[in-house]
Sequence to fold (119 residues):
Amino acid sequence: MAYVDGFVMAVPTANKQELIDYARRLDPVFLELGAIRVYECWGDEVPPGKQTDFQRAVQCKDDETVVFAWVEWPDKTIRDAGMKQMMEDPRMDPKLNPPPYDGMRMIYGGFQPVVVLGG
Fold:
């Protein structure tokens, strides 16, 4: 059964191209380590909520845009092995490849799909 890692972050709106370039450099590492696909999605229609929302979840500022990303893996075993390798890969070191956003405000988690429709 597939496994998904999801990420939400606030990225300075002025850094959109920098985020795209960053993702193009680092996202292929996920694929090298067994991921099926990687999505990086720039917020387009992210409305404020009454109790909570994406902006509040990542403390998004007025000059930032919410980015939603996910990585799809064939299964959790491949994901666990891939993520272990990724954490040891120097390309993923934020000191060598600093992200164009505040990683301390990123939220993420691993998810087991329970309903999948379409292809």
